[in-house]
Amino acid sequence: MRFRDRRQAGRKLAERLCEPPRGERLGHPVVLALPRGGAPVADEIAQALRAPLDVLVARRIGAPFNPELGVGALAGDDPPLYDERALALLDLTPAQLAPRAREERTELRRHEQLYRRGRPPAETRDRTVIVVDDGLATGVTARAALRSVRRREPARVILAVPVCSPEAAAAVRPETDDLVFLDQPDPFQAVGLWYEDFAQVRDEEVIDVVRASLAPR
Asked: Fewest CB within 10 A of the end CB: N or C in the chain?
């Protein structure tokens, strides 16, 4: 399955979330977008569910020789979460990645301030929380995000993505009460291959999505 763009994927994912019996158990959920790519997907879901939307900033920790190759991730105040299998294959240690992790922690704080503009995080305690991204390749960033959400004592945590790899699905399932996806291609290769339009989402777009979500749904 290929999606036209992130917003079309979000609308289809909202339909899947609303299907019984899952939809009957959602109650009054909170939608958390993993920016930047998850923001337009999450916006469509939040609109369909008439739910509040917020961002959950998580940062990938890339390999020293290839920053795009995620071997770990950060979210909230939690310590870095590393993909132990990837570290072993690449002969890397957390100590070697500590400088990169500190850089990403600084960027995480900067982006939280940029997107929220001083607003506190959405209230999630005792509520169903739907964490949304545009796809999962390795799942390490989503795992860090889900662990961060758990510390905020939600009633349930759902991870919703349009497309994911089988390996990522297996990695994130223990971290969530429900994993919702539309397609799980194998071989997977990359998230962007499953979109006709996978243009980079700009910070300004995330800010607009968060601002618009403050208006009555």
From this structure: N
